[in-house]
């Protein structure tokens, strides 16, 4: 499937195998760059072998330079000769020494892990942070499967039944075991059976559990993927490190958060290899869990990790959510071509479906259409010549302009767009001056007045968009307000 041609997009849990597919290598060291040579450290967070070269068509050691070595992997430094732009795309990974629970599914509202395992969020959190134990295999004892035990109870039962008679675990490993063993279809049937006699709060919780279980069944996501065994590392150019005047560096907060994860992970791996006592290893696993929590969503569970000056570090979640986040700030808030904005003024001579567009704005908005028509008529031989004629405002362009806009509606939008009538279509009319002219009857729908309000203009390009604008969105066809069906076109502003 082409990435430019798709019908829908779906967000899903990433399996460990999928994270390995994304990755170009394991990040093993917490270092970023060598402060003497100013070059990325090998196997570090900016490693050129993993993420690609810092300079176009040049390996790290300089043995291969120029585009003729495209695709060659240097036998000395291991860096592929390619464009430096790949450092915006290539990901790495961190192999965790112990499983870690994903904080979104633990602390979300409602907690997906809690609903799936039918363990209260408080107990779940105490298991993950090594305060309590959960029975994963009761054996021949009187204990129940998924029974929660305190540290004292766990020790007492060990003495009573013996060490190997039952199995209880703690930490994210315990949750991973429970999630791996879960039978989604069986859980669904059990919930449906319970629902028949349930009432009140119990019924509401069962319905929420059923929704979660069915969502996992239909989406083919494995519940065990909510516990991470490998952490993806985003490309270095998306968490840059810039040199300031005076030799100091300014780095993205994510680098500090990744560094904490790698440092704690390496220390945990070393302690496990040394055969350190379980209580010390447990404490280190808890610290690793907290480091990954801070990387994914800093401040969600406990006090936020802070940087210089006590400022909370911005985690991966902070870069996604909110007005300045990736979705609203970058994807929905993109600047678009074929648009402009200006102050609005009253146009009493206009029809209700017309809007006066300033000459210099109109010529820029409809430039490609005018250029195309000039080429068709033989007035200009090519696009460049046509653009030059437009720039010097050749008198012939205005007649063409009038014809081009004849059947081409425009969209006017006034922020804030609080209801559907905040954006409407109008037929453009070329006017002198620099203000957009609007019929006074059109102002109530936009909640606009003429004391300096600004409006944005957009040009629908496709034939379908133009037809939709003309048939459904034209100002004269939106007489009634959508909230109560009463006329929204009432005399106001200069008419009164």
Nearest-angstrom radius of gyration?
31 Å
- Named at the architecture level, the CATH assignment of the domain at 339-366 and 408-495 is Beta Barrel
Biggest sheet: strand arrangement: 9-13-10-12-11-14
Instruction: Provide the helix percentage.
Output: 25-40%
Q: Please identify the structural class as seen in this structure.
A: alpha+beta
pLDDT < 50 stretches: none
The description of the largest β-sheet is: 6 strands, mixed, barrel
Distance between the termini: 58 Å
Give the beta-strand count. Answer: 14
Shape: extended
Keywords:
496 residues; alpha+beta; Barwin-like endoglucanases; 6-stranded mixed beta barrel; 3-stranded mixed β-sheet; 37% helix
What can you see in these coordinates?
With 496 residues, the chain is an alpha+beta fold. The protein has a domain at 339-366 and 408-495: Barwin-like endoglucanases. 37% of the residues lie in helices and 15% in strands. The protein has helices at 16-22, 48-51, 103-107, 112-117, 121-128, 151-161, 172-181, 184-195, 200-219, 253-274, 278-297, 326-331, 359-365, 367-377, 383-391, 396-405, 443-446, 463-472; strands spanning 23-26, 91-101, 132-137, 148-150, 167-169, 227-233, 241-243, 249-251, 339-346, 354-358, 410-413, 423-431, 436-438, 454-458. The protein has a six-stranded mixed beta barrel with strand order 9-13-10-12-11-14. Strands 1-2-6 form a three-stranded mixed beta sheet. The protein has a three-stranded antiparallel beta sheet with strand order 4-3-5. Strand 1 (23-26), helix 2 and strand 2 form a beta-alpha-beta unit. Helix 8 (184-195) runs antiparallel to helix 9 (200-219), helix 14 crosses helix 15 (383-391) and helix 14 (367-377) packs across helix 16 (396-405). It is extended, with a radius of gyration of 31 Å. The mean pLDDT is 92.
């Amino acid at each position: 499937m082409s990435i430019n041609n798709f019908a829908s997009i779906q967000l899903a849990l990433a399996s460990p195998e999928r994270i390995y597919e994304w990755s170009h290598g394991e990040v093993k060291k917490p270092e970023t760059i060598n402060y003497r040579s100013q070059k990325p450290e090998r196997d570090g967070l900016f490693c050129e072998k993993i993420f690609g070269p810092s300079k176009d068509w040049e390996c790290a050691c300089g043995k291969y330079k120029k585009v003729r070595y495209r695709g060659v992997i240097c036998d000395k430094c291991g860096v592929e000769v390619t464009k430096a732009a790949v450092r915006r795309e290539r990901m790495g990974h961190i192999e965790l020494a112990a499983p870690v629970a994903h904080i979104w599914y633990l602390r979300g509202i409602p907690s997906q892990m809690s609903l799936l395992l039918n363990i209260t969020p408080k107990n779940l959190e105490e298991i993950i942070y090594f305060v309590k134990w959960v029975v994963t295999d009761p054996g021949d004892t009187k204990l129940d499967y998924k029974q929660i035990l305190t540290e004292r109870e766990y020790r007492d039962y060990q003495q009573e039944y013996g060490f190997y008679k039952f199995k209880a675990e703690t930490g994210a490993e315990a949750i991973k075991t429970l999630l791996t063993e879960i039978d989604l279809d069986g859980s669904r049937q059990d919930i449906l059976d319970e629902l028949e006699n349930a009432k009140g709060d119990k019924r509401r919780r069962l319905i929420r559990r059923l929704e979660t279980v069915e969502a996992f069944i239909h989406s083919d996501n494995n519940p065990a993927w909510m516990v991470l065994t490998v952490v993806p590392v985003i490309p270095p150019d998306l968490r840059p490190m810039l040199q300031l005047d005076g030799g100091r560096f300014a780095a993205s907060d994510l680098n500090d958060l990744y560094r904490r994860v790698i440092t704690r992970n390496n220390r945990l791996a070393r302690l496990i290899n040394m055969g350190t006592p379980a209580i010390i290893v447990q404490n280190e696993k808890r610290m690793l869990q907290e480091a990954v929590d801070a990387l994914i969503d800093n401040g969600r569970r406990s006090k936020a990790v802070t940087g210089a000056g006590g400022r909370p570090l911005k985690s991966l979640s902070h870069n996604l959510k909110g007005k300045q986040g990736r979705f609203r700030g970058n994807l929905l808030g993109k600047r678009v071509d074929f648009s402009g904005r200006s102050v609005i003024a009253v146009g009493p001579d206009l029809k209700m479906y017309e809007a006066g567009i300033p000459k210099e704005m109109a010529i820029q908005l409809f430039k490609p259409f005018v250029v195309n028509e000039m080429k068709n008529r033989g007035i200009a031989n090519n696009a460049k010549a046509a653009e030059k004629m437009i720039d010097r405002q050749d008198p012939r362009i205005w007649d063409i302009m009038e014809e081009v806009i004849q059947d081409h509606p425009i969209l006017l939008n006034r922020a804030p767009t609080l209801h559907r009538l905040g954006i409407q279509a109008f037929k453009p009319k070329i006017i002198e001056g620099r203000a957009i002219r609007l019929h006074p009857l059109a102002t109530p729908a936009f909640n606009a007045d003429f004391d300096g309000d600004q409006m944005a203009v957009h040009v629908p390009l496709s034939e379908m968009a133009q037809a939709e604008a003309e048939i459904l969105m034209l100002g004269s066809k939106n007489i009634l307000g959508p909230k109560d069906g009463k006329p929204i076109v009432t005399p106001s502003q200069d008419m009164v």
